[in-house]
Amino acid sequence: MKTKQVIVVSMWICAALMIVGTYTAALTWEQCGIRLIHASTVSRPLGVMSTGVTVTDSDPPSYASISKAVPGITGPAPLPSEEQGLPGDS
After folding, report:
1. Fewest CB within a 10 Å sphere: which of 6, 8, 24, 55?
2. Residues of the chain predicted below pLDDT 50
């Protein structure tokens, strides 16, 4: 190889190694829980948070309002028109 080609190839190899090294370091920091964001940039709540829920005290009923779940439709459901068989069959 010529000298210029060797220099270009070695520069490409160095650049690739730097990219891989940076990526590996970033993954390691993330896995260790190290945060790169400064603590002062993290937003904090400015007071007591309210969810907007209204709570009223009441006594629970002494009986179940529904004794048993009963389906509104009994028996098999009818097939849709495209599933009812060949045309002309009755």
Report:
1. 55
2. none
